[in-house]
Amino acid sequence: MKSRTLTALLLGTSMLGFAGTAFAQDTTLTIESWRNDDLAIWQEKLIPAFEAKNPGIKVVFSPSAPTEYNAALNAKLDAGSAGDLITCRPFDASLELYNKGHLADLSGLAGMENFTDVAKSAWSTDDGSATFCVPMASVIHGFIYNKDAFAEVGVEVPTTEDEFFAALDKIKEDGTYIPMAMGTKDLWEAATMGYQNIGPNYWKGEEGRLALIKGDQKLTDEQWVAPYATLAKWKDYLGDGFEAQSYPDSQNLFTLGRAAIYPAGSWEISLFNSQADFEMGAFAPPVKAGGDTCYISDHNDIAIGLNAKSANAEAAKTFLSWVASPEFATIYANALPGFFSLSSTPVEMEDPLAQEFVSWRESCESTIRSTYQILSRGTPNLENETWVKSANVINGTETPEAAAAELQKGLASWYDPQK
User: Fold this and answer.
1) What is the rounded distance in angstroms from the CA atom of residue 372 to the CA atom of residue 383?
2) Which residues form the signal peptide (predicted)?
3) In Å, how far from its chain's centre is CA 17?
4) Sign of the CA dihedral with 40 first, then 46, 52, and 57 last
């Protein structure tokens, strides 16, 4: 804080006493973040690229441990010691910071026009009247597959559900590979890699998600129950003991070459690239029938905002406008394959698997996970309950209809539009 105060005083002095001269003191911006894994990327790639074009502004990336970030950040904000730039988690945590006056409204920031309403939705007010963080990246759901396994067994990449299950049947009959690597022990895996992966094709992405928020659709409607019926069929293809299989177990089964298909989030790409010794491909969630519009979960994951109390707001806005630029999008997305730019401007991806995932944006409609905005603010928490029900359905301990009825009952107990 002392260095920033001194900087502000020096800048003020230079403006008052040396107007028109070239004298200036560097302004230093500090970024708060939970992404300590990204420290080298910021120090070696992102910050040098910005500083080269913006002499006089220095940037320091200062991350906390991921599990400690929310508490540490809130303490710093309350004490007035937080950095100028705040890395934003999606939806309610950041909305609360904005409502408390900790994050500035960035709706008019130069560069915000590069993002769609869907891209901004995780960092906007419920009515869309204000956006308080610049979207940085999303993660996309789909399926990663072992190209060698597909070639050996003689299956084609599926585009429809019938083709998908025919491929699973053929892989299972061959017996060399577990058809699909996914467990239900950790619960969230069943919902995130299962229900939220294939579901958007049933409820038509944003159309269904927004209708659920408005109360125009219910979780007991056919388009919300049907994905569970499909998930129930996965049980036969997950291999022996999948009920006790953890998320790391699933990753290992696939990267060791024992499973042919992995229901995935794109964040797996970097890890899988480093561990798998076979060529991988990816395909989007299969549609019900050929010619149907496809929908993908292109889920907002990370953004960055302005500390409303920053003493360096103008310099920070210069940085944030750069974060909103195609240059930043290209550097960031290629440094972290599987974390995709939310910019409307296409980004040239270098990683072939990342290229495949992001190409679906051109042919499919994008949406976000159905439970993340508004619908998980109460108790029972719809997101967490969806984990349990997805696992139960796959395990065969609960029917799709019963699971949906319980979820609807829980949501209606606290969410007025669903009562």
Assistant:
1) 7
2) 1-24
3) 48
4) negative
CATH of 2-135+300-350, one of 3.40.190.10, 3.30.70.380, 1.10.472.10, 3.30.870.10: 3.40.190.10
Q: Fold for domain 140-298+369-418?
A: D-Maltodextrin-Binding Protein; domain 2 (3.40.190)
- Considering the chain, tell me which residue range(s) the CATH 3.40.190.10 domain(s) occupy: 2-135+300-350, 140-298+369-418
Q: What confidence tens digit (pLDDT) does each residue in 156-188 have?
A: 999 999 999 999 999 999 999 999 999 999 999
pLDDT at residue 66, as a whole number: 83
Average pLDDT, the chain: 92
Calculated CA dihedral for residues 190, 193, 196, 198, nearest 10 degrees: -110
Least Cα distance to 322 among 137, 63, 139, 134 occurs for 134
Helix (H, G, I), strand (E, B) or coil at 237: helix
DSSP 182: -
* Predicted confidence (pLDDT) per residue in 251-305, tens digit: 999 999 999 999 999 999 988 999 999 999 999 999 999 999 999 999 999 999 9
Helix (H) or strand (E) holding 142: strand 133-146
Task: Identify any residues that bridge with 305 across adjacent strands, giving them in sequence order.
Answer: 86, 133
pTM: 0.83
Phi, psi of 122 (to 5 degrees): -75, -15
Exposure b/e, 144-163, CB count within 10 A at least 16 = b? bbbebbbeebebebbbebeb
